[in-house]
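Dear support,

I submitted the protein below through the web form. The confirmation email said the job was done, but the results page showed an empty box. After a refresh the structure appeared. I'm attaching both so you can tell me whether what I see now is the final result or a partial one.
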Amino acid sequence: MGDSGTRPHANGAERPSTNDPNTFPCLQHGVPPVEISIPRGLHSTSWDYVDATQHVVRGANYLADKKKYPSKPAAFKLVEVAGFSTDGPCRFYSELQDSYYSRAREAGRDVFLFIMHFDLRPMHTVMVFELDKVALQEDKPFANAFQRFLQGDDAYKNKRIKLLTSVVDANWMVKKAIGQPVPALIGNKLSCYYRQADDLCECTCDVNSSMA
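What the results page shows now:
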């Protein structure tokens, strides 16, 4: 369902061509975008990469010294952001025929995917990440922690998935409400559901499950 022209945004602005590899980096992997794919770049409705090394994480001796250090480069690469609405429930995005998961497998790409799915019925926002195999091979502490995460049950996963919110550009009231970037265990606040396979782990966060 990829297109070759432009499409208006909801606010009337022109949407860049989905054939532009600079706008859709997933095209470099041979996985074409679809209608629900959100473009990357400096547009009114778009997304861009985040440098993981700009954030601090707990060091190896944190329990003793309470010190945090700049993170290593991310072990997952964000390859697509999608947004769509549904008339009925959609528990797992990866089950949809036009999901990135389905398109990647049809294109012969078999990289492990982690999918973060925010269910705000009827709206859905999805972020798709591909695992960097080099990081898995060279960073043994991460590899071990990730393996334990995959082997753990839903309760185990809920205690380890954290959401780090950071407001880059907003008015004073919004910035005050969000505050400083602080990791939050979203599984403690909202209902989360998981779909897992040998090549996939999707976490669906039911944003409507809590008034907070």
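Response: this is the final, complete result; the empty box was a page-load delay. The first strand starts at residue 7 and ends at 8.
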